[in-house]
Design goal:
It is built from 2 helices and 4 strands; from the N terminus they run αβαβββ. The chain is of the alpha+beta class and 86 residues long. It has one domain: Rossmann fold (3-Layer(aba) Sandwich). Strands 1-2 form a two-stranded parallel ribbon. Strands 3-4 form a two-stranded antiparallel ribbon.
Length: 86
């Protein structure tokens, strides 16, 4: 599961991790991805679930009504709480 698949690198890596750990079934899902990326990744999984496949796909953010970039230090969590800054 991902918030969207841009180039497919992260999802592709996750799929290969599953394959390397002998997963018996792999389902890849995301709300949005480009058609060519979906086609390439679909060959690697048992099932691919993508809600939106814009013909002119440029970025994951293009299909979200509200999209906010998270700063590098904004996504770190520790035991369910914000990580302390050094």
């Amino acid at each position: 599961m991902d918030n969207g698949i841009a180039m497919g690198s992260t999802m592709g890596t996750a799929i290969m991790l599953c394959k390397n750990n002998d997963a018996t079934k792999i389902v890849a899902a995301a709300p949005v991805a480009g058609p060519s990326t979906v086609a390439a990744l679909a060959e690697l999984v048992n099932r691919m679930v993508i809600l939106e496949k814009p013909l002119f796909f440029r970025a994951v953010a293009q299909v979200y009504e509200n999209w906010y970039d998270v700063p590098d230090d904004g996504g770190q969590l520790q035991n369910g709480k914000d990580a302390e800054k050094p």
